[in-house]
Amino acid sequence: MLWSLVILLILLIMVMVACVVVSGKRDEQNCRQVVHLIWTAIIAAACYTAFLLVPPDYYGLAVFMDGLYFLSTDWLVVNLLLFTTAYTGLEPPTKLPRYIIVLLALADSISFVVNTFTCHMFDLEAEMIGMTGECYWNVHFKQPHYIHRLFVYSIVLYSLLILLYRFIKEPSIYKKKYGGILVQTLAVVGLNILCAVLDTKFDYSVVLYAFIAIAICYFTLFASPRALLEKIYATVIGDSVLGVIAYDKNGKCIGVNQSAGKFFPGDGEIHALAEEYLSNWEISHQDDYSIVIAEEQTIIRDNKKKYIYVTYQRFSDEKGRNLGCCFQFENRTEIVKRFREEQYRITHDMLTGLLNRNAFEEAAEKLLAHVEEPYYMVCSNIKDFKLVNELYGAEIGDKLLIAQAEMINRALDESTVIARIFADKFCILMPKRRFNEQEALEQIEDLKNLNLVSSFKLHYYVGVYEIQDVKEPIWTMYDKAIMAIDTIRGNYEQSICYYEDELLEHIMEEKEVLGELDRAMEEKQFCMFLQPQIANDGAIVGAEALVRWIHPEKGMISPGIFIPTLEKAGLIHKLDLYMWESAAQKLEEWKKLGREKFSISVNISTKDFYYLNICETFRQISEKYDFDVKKLKLEITESALMENVEENMKTLDGLHALGYDIEIDDFGSGYSSLGMLKDIHADILKIDMIFLQETQNVKRSTTILKNIITMSKELGMPVITEGVETKEQVEFLMKVGCDMFQGYYFAKPMKVESFEEVYCRA
Q1: SS3 243
Q2: CA 452/CA 423 separation, integer angstroms
Q3: Is 505 contained in some domain?
Q4: Is residue 632 within 8 Å of 583, Cβ to Cβ?
Q5: Do 285 and 391 share a structural domain?
Q6: Domain shared by 160 and 263, yes or no
Q7: 182 and 39 in one domain?
């Protein structure tokens, strides 16, 4: 009997050690408390086993080992309480109760250690068991030992009450979790009490330590409420946006959630439709025995196309036998829609709906890779489109772009690629045979006639490049079409221009000019030439300042090359400012030399009004240089004054306030010359040379010239006629009363040094 019990206890201890090992590998929150509890149970069982094996001749050792067993029960129940409170979540708000219990357990433990020498808690008596020769220790408990039992049973009772409370309060699906531990603990306590009451030879409750260890491990760390899981699964699947259909091994539909019905077109009983769907699926996938198959499908539901992602999964047991299968249906319609919208945004211009720059490049390259006929790269833009936005607002500007896009888009087919590159620049890659210049001009006229900016005359430019090499970079083709536009920009009579190789040379010349501009100014390569202005009495009264570029390597560069380039690039104001200061500096020099009788006229171009504060600039020049401001004449062309009359009038008033005289240059070249004179306060009128050029209507020309001079005198404005080249012209002009002359008849523009040598001799 004794040895049977010992062997059983050893086996149960091994079971508990296994529970410790398994629990130690888990990562749950309560693992530490579980391990501690089982370890104390192992120690208690081991101490009791060792006690049973002590021979009768070793009384002191037996008392000590039995004391260790009772001592270990103290810490066993303490750990039981700690585990219970942690497991149920009913821990006290403070740690004081825990400290009190630990101190009581420690005092009780010390008492059992002292009992080895005093036997005040219990003593032992060796007793033979029947005729087997086996001996056991009969334990005689003394009164202090009942204090130990009170402490142990109190803690156990408290633990049981905690488990019972949680068992009663929790939903039914959680009761098993607490009930299993509660029953096992009650069994141990009950058996222990029974052994004490019956005064049995052995404490058989130790045998149950292994069972409670297994119960605690299972219910704490491994068991899950199956009913809860089933409810969760049913709820999740039932309410899921994913459609789910389950089948048994025979293909019978055994479950379908609400969402699945949305993926089946037509009417009919859902289970029948589901079984038909599975049958069709197996037919179409008969060569595919995969456990999991996923694919995209398109269906029509409520007359709308829907995109779904179907996942098929087959289930098998451990032997590979078919258990059933299921489908999952994910509605990806919105995802596909958003993806396509995003792709559209990436590849298209959102205002016009045409391709954008990047998409155009890709589409053009794909198209040109397979063409076998000549192709054109056609580009367009609107003159002063930025000004349209400023004057009329971005909304009107957008409407113009949309209208142009709609007109261009009419040419769209498989052989054509159309895009809005940026702002007002559009691009078309099209077969040469489809480009009709006359139709293009008609479309341009239609766009001009749009009643969106009736007070603003629109002008469209189109550049055409015939592609010579389809492998040429797309943007090189585009640049060549734009180069063609650049050659006609500012030309109101021409709207379409074709790229030629000579254009590239011209563009390179322009870029070279722009690249050397700053250095040329720093090195004073731009020189001021003077063309004399002669009074009708033959005396020189002044000169017009004209710019010449003396390049150190190329020599004299014609103004006809660099001035239009600078005007196009918006840099002419830099050169004009350079000339103004050069003239002021020369007048200061002449003043110091006593040559104040001469004036110098300088030109103010149209672009200067956009880039410079004219009044402030000339105020600074007059402060910087010491000269008579009346000697610096400011020539402003008639056309420049007419672009923004109101603002330009304010500018002229400001210049007059500074003391400068204003010359109207090229008078008679515009269409509003006479009307302009009543509004503009000018000091000198400079008549355009067109009236001196050969014409079939000589009489009309001379009559107009004569009347202009007469009118100017009546307005108190001296007159200068430029472009005088013959003696006959001089005589005629003197006869009609012209005050001053300028032209090749008297002198060509010359270097300042030459001018001074000829006209400034003392």
Answers
A1: strand
A2: 18
A3: no
A4: yes
A5: no
A6: no
A7: yes
- Count H helices and E strands in the chain, helices first: 26, 22
Q: Are 406 and 521 part of one and the same domain?
A: no
Collapsing DSSP to helix, strand or coil, 267 comes out as coil
CATH number, domain with residue 305: 3.30.450.20
**Is 52 a member of any domain?**
yes
Tokens in use for 573?
Answer: 């104001």
The model scores a pTM over 0.70: no
Assess whether 462 and 352 both reside in one domain.
Answer: yes
- Is the model's pLDDT at 729 over the cut of 70? yes
Same domain? For 659 and 573 the reply is: yes
- Contact by Cβ (8 Å): 401, 424: yes
C-alpha 688/C-alpha 664 separation (Å) is 10
Under DSSP, the state recorded for 220 is I
Give the model's pLDDT for residue 533.
92
For residues 577 and 586, what is the distance between their CA atoms, to the nearest angstrom?
Answer: 14
Give the integer Cα–Cα distance in Å for 639 and 651.
15
Residue type present at position 343: Q
Q: Is residue 507 assigned to a domain?
A: no
Tell which wins on pLDDT, 30 or 368.
368
Site of tokens 């070793």: 58
Longest Cα–Cα distance of the chain, Å, equals: 170
Q: E strand or H helix at 75, and its extent?
A: helix 59-88
Highest mean pLDDT among 79-88, 103-112, 449-458, 710-719: 103-112
Please tell me whether residues 175 and 43 are part of one structural domain: yes
Residue ending a domain, among 468, 499, 530, is 499
Mean pLDDT, residues 18-23 taken together:
77
pLDDT at 418 over 80: yes
CB of 617 within 8 A of CB of 583?
A: no
Give me the pLDDT at residue 671, please. Answer: 44
How many domains does the chain contain in total?
4
Check: CB of residue 579 under 8 Å from CB of residue 543: no
Q: Are 575 and 604 in contact (CB under 8 A)?
A: no
Q: For 599-697, where are the alpha helices, taking DSSP H only?
A: 608-611, 614-624, 638-643, 645-657, 673-677
751 alpha carbon, distance to own chain's centre: 60
Q: Where does residue 699 rank: exposed (0-12), middle (13-18), buried (19+ CB within 10 A)?
A: exposed
Instruction: State the pLDDT at residue 658.
Output: 92
Residue 342: alpha-carbon gap to chain centroid: 12
> Is residue 131 over pLDDT 60?
no
Q: What is the mean pLDDT of the chain?
A: 82
**What per-residue confidence (pLDDT) applies to 695?**
46
List the CATH number of the domain containing 554: 3.20.20.450
CA 551 to chain centre: 50
Residue 504, in any domain of the structure? no
From residue 486, give the alpha-carbon distance in Å to each of 499, 504, 745: 10, 11, 37
Name the nearest CA neighbour of 147 among 110, 117, 202, 184.
110
> Can you give the three-state secondary structure of 675-734, one letter per residue?
HHHCCCCCCEEEECHHHHCCCCCHHHHHHHHHHHHHHHHHCCCCEEEECCCCHHHHHHHH
Up-side HSE of residue 163: CA atoms within 13 Å toward CB? Answer: 25
Helix (H, G, I), strand (E, B) or coil at 156: helix
CA separation for the pair 196, 205 (Å, rounded): 10
- Which range of residues forms the domain containing residue 290? 228-336
- Count Cβ neighbours within 10 Å for each residue of 738-750 and write b for 16 or more, e otherwise: bbbbbbeebbebb
Report the CATH number at residue 135: 1.20.1070
Q: What is the pLDDT of residues 163-194, one digit of tens each?
A: 888 888 877 767 777 887 888 888 888 878 88
| SS3 assignment for 501-540 | HHHHHHHHHHHHHHHHHHHHHHCCCEEEEEEEEEECCCCE
Average pLDDT rounded to a whole number, residues 322-348? 87
Instruction: Say which CATH number the domain at 473 has.
Output: 3.30.70.270
Do 89 and 234 have their domain in common? no
| Contact of 165 with 90, CB cutoff 8 Å | yes
Nearest to 580 by CA among 655, 668, 682: 655
Q: Which of 286, 308, 336 is the last residue of a domain?
A: 336
